[in-house]
Amino acid sequence: MEKLLRILLLIVCSTLQLNAQNTQESWDAYMAAYEDGKIGSTTLRMDLIDNVPIEGFNYVLVTGLTYETANENGLPENETFATLHKVADQLMEIIDKETEFITVGSFMYNKERLEYFYLKEPKELASVIENFYKLNYPDYKFYVNIKEDKDWSYYRDFLYPNEETLNYMADQSVLRSLEQTGDKLTKARRVNHWFYFSTEEAMKQCESELVAANFAVNSSGINSQSDLPYELQMYRVDHVDIDTIFPITSQLRITAKKFGGEYDGWETIVVTE
Question: Which of 26, 104, 149, 263 could potentially form a cystine with 47 if both were Cys, beta carbons 3.0 to 4.6 Å apart?
Fold first, then answer.
């Protein structure tokens, strides 16, 4: 059975209530390999990026535990992960008693998990957290560091993913949506792609290059609601597993930029048994 599903490249995240501000949180996670080949896992708030730095929260707290694991990639096993998650919850309770704060993310790498918080006032929080670790987790090595970070560089430059990773996460999010409807992602199907350009000439040049790559034109014309008013819709039959679709969307972004345009996402049909 097939049914049409329009899916835009949006990061679908869980929503939680922010303790320091009256807004909704949007969280997501990604994994990346670093220079030594080891895997790191980052979980972070995605919704803050257009609003940082946030006035008054000028200090960053980085703290966490080093753990043991049998996993070669350095990531924790289930029981250890449960402990680390518990620690994160306990840290928020501790910090909440001392100062206003914003939780922005965590980073697991090389047998260590670090939590990141932005604080209004550091006070004696470092000592309080050190005593907490010594009392409750005496067998673990811990790390505590509070420093001024008015520009929120820890969040913007370290935790927040680069453009390529964002695009990968977006494609993964689309595939999760497909899988939630029962799609096994094993069958090729028609995939539609959207592009926008500032001039008709640029749109036509991109169209010609995509046709040469076996894409077909679905429609082209004016979209007065877009800052780039010339809209092009192309399609091709492809597989949509992440190892197939991400290289395709990456190349389409490059092609669109080549002609001064923007690639604006894809849609496809849900294919279920």
Answer: 26
CA distances from 186 to 2, 89, 195, 268 (A): 13, 39, 26, 13
Q: What does the alpha-carbon distance between residue 8 and residue 21 come to, in Å, rounded to a whole number?
A: 29
Q: Specify the pairing of strand 230-238 against strand 112-119.
A: unpaired
Instruction: Count up the domains in the chain and report the number.
Output: 2
Torsion, Cα of 243, 247, 248, 254 (10° steps): 160
How far apart (Å, rounded) are the C-alpha atoms in residues 65 and 26?
Answer: 25
Q: Measuring CA to CA, how many Å separate 46 from each of 1, 91, 106?
A: 35, 21, 12
Q: Report the C-alpha gap between 16 and 27 in whole angstroms.
A: 8
- Report d(CA 55, CA 43) in Å as an integer: 23
Q: Are residues 244 and 200 in the same domain?
A: yes
The closest of 41, 6, 9 to 163, measured between CA atoms, is: 9
Average pLDDT over residues 198-221: 97
Under the banding of pLDDT at 50, 70 and 90, the label for residue 23 is low
Domain shared by 217 and 241, yes or no: yes
Determine the structural domain holding residue 61 and report its residue range: 34-159
User: In this structure, is residue 240 part of a structural domain?
Assistant: yes
- Please report whether residue 81 resides in a domain: yes
- Band of the pLDDT at 20, cuts 50, 70, 90? very low
Distance of alpha carbon 215 from alpha carbon 208, whole angstroms: 9
DSSP code for 52: P
pTM assigned to the model = 0.79
Spatial distance between the Cα atoms of 171 and 241, rounded to a whole number of angstroms: 9
Q: Which residue shows structure tokens 């895997």?
A: 39
Q: Report the distance separating Cα 96 and Cα 82, nearest Å.
A: 22
